[in-house]
Structures are given as C-alpha cells and as structure tokens.
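User: Can you recover a sequence for this backbone? Please restate the input before giving your answer.

Assistant: Of course. Working from this structure:
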C-alpha cells in the first residue's frame, strides 16, 4: 500500500492517509491488539489482514477520529469502537514535500462505548482503576505485616 503510480511514467508517490496531522503509510497490529479484537470486537478468529483492511477502509473514509482533542493515543472508530495507537516515523521515507511518514501501531482495542458504559469517560475510568488497585495493594500490604 506504500506506492501509488503517478501520471508520469516510472514515477512513484508514497501512498498515505492523513490522521491527526500524521501521514500514515503502514498499520501494525500487535498480538495483544489481535487478541483483544477477538475477545472484545468480533468474538471469533479473525486474520490480521482482515483487521488491517478494515482499519484502512475506515481511515480512507475518515471514520477514525481522536477521542480527546489534544492527545494522540486513543482513537474512536465510527464514534463507538475505541483503540489505543502509537505512531512511529518510517525511516528513510518522506512525502514529496519532505515531511515524514508514519507507521500506526495498534496497541489494543478497548471495546465499544455502546456496550461498556465506563469507556465513555476514559479518564474517570482509569483514575478509578488506579485508585481501586492502590487500595487493594494497601490492604494486602497490611495483611502481610
């Protein structure tokens, strides 16, 4: 998906899709993201190629948007499915103007906001998780003494 033939003979333009001021040329799905896709999204065994094709189609149609305005880690697909991504610069590749191209690494799929109410406000949910874990650790620490 990286090369698209231009109108001139023997000239290639790197193919990219823009997302949040980054030009994406490649998608990588981690093993954790693949397992989360199976458990939280599809419910059945899905090939990595099918997930990548799904994400490319959503990128092309503009259906992926940042969950928070200033953060570039959590993205929402079709205003429902949340995913955590990381961007890395592709070495030795730039667009025609010399700007860097990026690889989007999907870390995990959090699930659907329509099914899990806690995902509607991630900051509150994660602060609650941190607090409950801390309290559990403190309680376990008291038992050991």
């Amino acid at each position: 998906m990286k090369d698209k033939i231009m109108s001139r003979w023997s000239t290639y333009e790197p193919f990219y899709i823009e997302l949040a001021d980054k030009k994406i040329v490649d998608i990588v799905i981690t093993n954790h993201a693949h397992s989360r896709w199976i458990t939280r999204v599809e419910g059945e065994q899905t090939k990595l190629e099918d997930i990548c094709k799904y994400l490319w189609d959503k990128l092309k149609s503009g259906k992926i948007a940042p969950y928070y305005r200033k953060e570039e880690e959590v993205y929402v697909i079709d205003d429902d499915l949340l995913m955590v991504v990381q961007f890395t610069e592709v070495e030795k590749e730039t667009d025609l103007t010399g700007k860097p191209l990026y690889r989007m690494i999907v870390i995990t799929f959090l699930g659907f906001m329509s099914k899990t109410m806690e995902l509607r406000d991630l900051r509150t949910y994660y602060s609650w998780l941190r607090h409950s874990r801390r309290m559990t650790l403190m309680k376990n620490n008291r038992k050991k003494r």
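That completes the design. The CA atoms of residues 19 and 123 lie 23 Å apart.
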